[in-house]
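Anyone up for a design puzzle?
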């Protein structure tokens, strides 16, 4: 009975949030560059493979799809931020809170729907990337079904988590422009600087912490299986270190849990701030 009541309490806000997202141009406006970027990256990967015939024995397409998935998670986070903070910008958050029992279900609904949009972006990235890569070089080694499905599922999970994280961050900051600029500055500059400082430390423990930053953890999770398929189990950790810019990366499962931890932490911060914010 208690579980049923909790599901009923979150069901209505989720349906309302889904209608809001579906009725705006934001989700498909970001989906277009996601599909185009994936197509261009994987088409270039196919052309690269065709230019070096000796590389056709390797499933390089799996690597370019993984790289595309890493970029897609940024778009998922941007959607979450803009969708959540947009409610404050357009002052619709007052009506949302007045028509919902409690503010926690509102945040949970925003995080769930933004996670769904992020998962959709990742699925489109995989499909368009595989089609573009195969069109650019049909003779290249096609990734096995198992590694491809595993990489796709991990990419979907990472993008979903970043979508939810973005919604929580947008709720916590509430100013749409500030939240968006802060998120992009952190991902494009801030995490690189923090990672560089950690990598410069003499302590191996401090250097290993670079793998546990939110952006780096997502890349470690996505690159794990492709690196193993292309470079082999012995060299794969070094390949992940090179691609993600980290030291001593954990396995993809641990890295995925790290991203989930950061999402939960930002979600808790968003809930604390939203619960105490005055709404007019």
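Challenge accepted. My sequence:
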């Amino acid at each position: 009975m208690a579980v049923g009541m909790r599901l009923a309490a979150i069901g209505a806000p989720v349906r309302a949030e889904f209608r809001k997202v579906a009725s705006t141009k934001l989700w498909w406006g970001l989906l277009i560059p996601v599909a185009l970027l994936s197509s261009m990256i994987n088409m270039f990967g196919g052309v690269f493979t065709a230019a070096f015939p000796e590389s056709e024995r390797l499933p390089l397409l799996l690597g370019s799809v993984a790289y595309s998935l890493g970029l897609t998670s940024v778009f998922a986070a941007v959607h979450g931020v803009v969708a959540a903070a947009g409610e404050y910008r357009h002052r619709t958050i007052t009506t949302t809170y007045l028509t919902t029992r409690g503010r926690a279900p509102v945040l949970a609904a925003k995080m769930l729907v933004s996670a769904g949009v992020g998962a959709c972006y990742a699925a489109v990235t995989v499909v368009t990337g595989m089609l573009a890569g195969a069109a650019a070089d049909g003779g290249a080694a096609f990734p096995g079904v198992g590694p491809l499905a595993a990489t796709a599922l991990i990419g979907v999970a990472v993008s979903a988590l970043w979508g939810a994280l973005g919604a929580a961050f947008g709720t916590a900051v509430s100013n749409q422009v500030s939240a968006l600029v802060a998120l992009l500055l952190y991902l494009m500059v801030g995490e690189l600087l923090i990672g560089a400082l950690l990598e410069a430390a003499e302590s191996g423990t401090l250097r290993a912490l670079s793998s546990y930053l939110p952006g780096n953890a997502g890349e470690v999770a996505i690159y794990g299986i492709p690196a193993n398929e292309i470079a082999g189990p012995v060299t794969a950790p070094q390949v992940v270190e090179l691609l993600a810019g980290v030291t001593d990366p954990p396995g993809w499962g641990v890295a995925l849990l790290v991203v989930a931890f950061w999402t939960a932490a930002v979600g808790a911060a968003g809930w604390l701030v939203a619960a105490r914010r005055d709404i007019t």
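A detail worth pointing out: The chain has a mean pLDDT of 89.
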